[in-house]
């Protein structure tokens, strides 16, 4: 995984929705500064994943960061959780047929404390389901903790 992005033209797909969150805006700014200058950026926020498919063929690699933020912005949007799952599954089916490798970054939220709120528990469950579907569709899956990666598929 560490060499998957080395020396290639990479399209970085950003899924953060920044409206009204100054702390997240600072994090995103710092992240932008750390990315290589040669990388392209496609900011979709919680938007449609079709934009990723449309842009993918122009790049050697696509890095979507992150599935977690995309799910969080979509779960309460138009069509809710079911619409988000349908869109993700359609995206995974098309991404599998692309010549361009697509790398998805997601968080594992099921290893910690169960959230206090019903919305937090719904998010944890939905992201768990999404991560299962992504892992099932993926050729390779890595679990990263403390800066160390472990290939699990």
Please describe the structure with a list of short key phrases separated by commas or semicolons.
153 residues, alpha/beta, 42% helix, 17% strand, globular
Structure description:
- The strands form two sheets. Strands 2-1-3-4 form a four-stranded parallel β-sheet. It has a two-stranded antiparallel sheet with strand order 5-6.
- It has 153 residues and is of the alpha/beta class.
- Helix 1 links the parallel strand 1 and strand 2 (40-43).
- The longest helix is centred in the last third of the chain and has 20 residues, at 118-137.
- The protein contains five helices and six strands, in the order βαβαβααβαββ.
- The chain has helices at residues 22-34, 50-56, 67-74, 80-95, 118-137; strands at 10-14, 40-43, 61-65, 102-105, 142-145, 148-151.
- It is globular, with a radius of gyration of 15 Å.
Chart the SSEs and their pairings.
Layout: E1 10-14, H1 22-34, E2 40-43, H2 50-56, E3 61-65, H3 67-74, H4 80-95, E4 102-105, H5 118-137, E5 142-145, E6 148-151
Parallel strand pairs: 1-2, 1-3, 3-4
Antiparallel strand pairs: 5-6
Mean pLDDT: 92
Radius of gyration: 15 Å
Structural class: alpha/beta
Count of distinct strands: 6
Low-confidence stretches: none
State the major sheet. Answer: 4 strands, parallel
Q: How are helices and strands ordered from N to C?
A: EHEHEHHEHEE
Strand order in space, largest sheet: 2-1-3-4
Looking at the structure, what is the overall shape? globular
């Amino acid at each position: 995984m560490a060499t998957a992005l080395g020396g290639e033209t990479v399209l970085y797909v950003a899924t953060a929705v920044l409206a009204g969150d100054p702390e997240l805006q600072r994090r995103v700014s710092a992240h932008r500064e750390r990315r290589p200058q040669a990388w392209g950026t496609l900011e979709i926020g919680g938007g449609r994943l079709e934009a990723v498919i449309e842009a993918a063929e122009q790049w050697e690699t696509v890095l979507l960061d992150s599935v977690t933020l995309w799910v969080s912005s979509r779960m309460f949007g138009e069509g809710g959780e079911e619409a988000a799952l349908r869109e993700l599954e359609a995206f995974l089916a098309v991404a599998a047929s692309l010549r361009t490798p697509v790398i998805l970054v997601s968080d594992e939220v099921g290893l910690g404390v169960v959230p206090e709120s019903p919305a937090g528990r719904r998010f944890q469950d939905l992201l768990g389901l999404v991560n299962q579907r992504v892992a099932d569709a993926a050729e390779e899956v890595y679990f990263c903790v403390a800066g160390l990666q472990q290939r699990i598929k």
